[in-house]
Amino acid sequence: MALISIAAYPAGTSAADTSSTEAVSGVKGQAEAMDVEIIVNPDREVNCLKTMDKGSFKVAVLGSEKLDVEKINVDSVTISCEKSEESVKPIDFEYRDVSSDGQKDLVMAFDCHEMMVKLDLRNCFCEEAPMQVTGSMDETAGAGIIQGSASTLILPRFR
Fold first, then answer.
1. Distance between CA atoms of residues 13 and 23, nearest Å
2. Can you point out the beta strands (E) in the chain?
3. What is the pLDDT along the chain (159 residues), one digit of tens a residue?
4. Containing H/E element for 112?
5. Is-contact 45 1, C-beta < 8 A?
6. How many Cα atoms within 13 Å fall on the side-chain side of residue 39?
7. What angle (nearest 5°) sits at the alpha carbon of residue 48, between those of residues 104 and 157?
8. Strand 34-35 to strand 145-155: parallel, antiparallel, or no bridges (unpaired)?
9. 80 pairs with which residues across the strands?
10. 16 phi/psi in degrees, rounded to 5
11. Rounded CA gap, 148 and 15, in Å?
């Protein structure tokens, strides 16, 4: 099985990055977000989202020596796309090692239909959609902000 992994873009690389950091933290001018690595569709060989998919779409935040994913405040996590100003919260999550590096990863499930509608992905047939995950760490981890980016291919559903 091939995993598609795209490293996170550095915090502050665009105006959209700054506004999402402020939206998560609620505080303007707070320290820069911690860049995290994410994997889109960690359980599939193909990194895509089909327009008529029902069910969930998974995104994993990879844990590391510097990032204990169990200290991420899951209630604060959202996924967004630069094509829309909306964001979507996960409907479920679990901790498991998807990258086979011995570190726990946070695997979140998002509702496919909600993502298509709120993130305005319905008209992106055969295009890559840049996705951004943002969230905050709990108070025991210093209450920082996390942020990671990756892209997924939007495909029409074929029968």
1. 16
2. 34-35, 38-40, 48-50, 56-61, 72-81, 87-88, 92-96, 105-111, 127-137, 145-155
3. 333 333 333 333 333 443 444 444 443 345 578 899 999 989 887 778 877 778 899 999 999 999 999 999 999 999 999 878 899 999 999 999 999 999 999 999 999 989 988 988 876 777 888 999 999 998 776 768 999 999 988 887 654
4. helix 112-118
5. yes
6. 20
7. 140
8. parallel
9. 87, 132
10. -65, -40
11. 15
Would you list the DSSP string of 28-41? TTPPPPEE--EEES
The two tokens of residue 153 are 């291919």
Which residue has tokens 């994913």? 69
Query: What are the tokens at 46?
Result: 């193909």
Cβ burial of 54 (10 Å; 0-12, 13-18, 19+) is: exposed
* Global model pTM greater than 0.70: yes
Q: Could you give the CA distance from residue 135 to residue 129 in angstroms, rounded to a whole number?
A: 20
Query: What tokens appear for 32 in the block?
Result: 């820069």
